[in-house]
């Protein structure tokens, strides 16, 4: 399977060699997920802080794909449209029925259209290690991209974990040399004079 074509992404000169997988924004926080080859990097930016966390593919514990609907945003859009409907109704009863209808369509109509789009499900991919979670949310109209990304990431995680699972067997058979780790006491004993 060939990897997906990805445009090179450079953000302020700090993202050299990284591929942007997804950008997600919510109130006050912008989340970027980058592909670094053998791991994913999650970068969260709020107003003052930037935090970066990494998930190596060999450490992935859980991957999920699910459909998510934005219920809170849907309810908010419907409430705002209802407020504009009440304003249009008040204008329609006091001045003219046509003026009230036009007021509602101009002010409340966009919120009804937005509420219609909020009823469509988004696809959310979640990749989790022991300490870090990456959430990638794609809109309804990018389902083919989401499915292709899911397949590619699943294959890469399986391959990385297969290699990790084979390493102890190769060490036991003597195919891979294991270096002795320095001990703390061994390091201290060389500096202490008796």
List the helices and strands and how they pair.
Layout: E1 19-26, E2 29-35, E3 39-45, E4 50-56, E5 62-68, H1 71-94, H2 97-107, H3 109-118, E6 122-128, E7 133-138, H4 143-173, H5 184-191
Antiparallel strand pairs: 1-2, 2-3, 3-4, 5-6, 6-7
Helix pairs in contact: 1-2, 1-3
Q: What this model shows, in words?
A:
By secondary structure, the protein is of the alpha+beta class. It has a domain at 71-118. Helices cover 43% and strands 25% of the residues. The chain is built from 5 helices and 7 strands. The chain has helices at 71-94, 97-107, 109-118, 143-173, 184-191, and strands at residues 19-26, 29-35, 39-45, 50-56, 62-68, 122-128, 133-138. It has a 4-stranded antiparallel beta sheet, with no helix packed on it. A 3-stranded antiparallel beta sheet has the order 5-6-7, covered by helices on one side. α1 packs antiparallel against α2 (97-107) and α1 packs antiparallel against α3. Mean pLDDT is 75; it is low at 7-16 and 180-189.
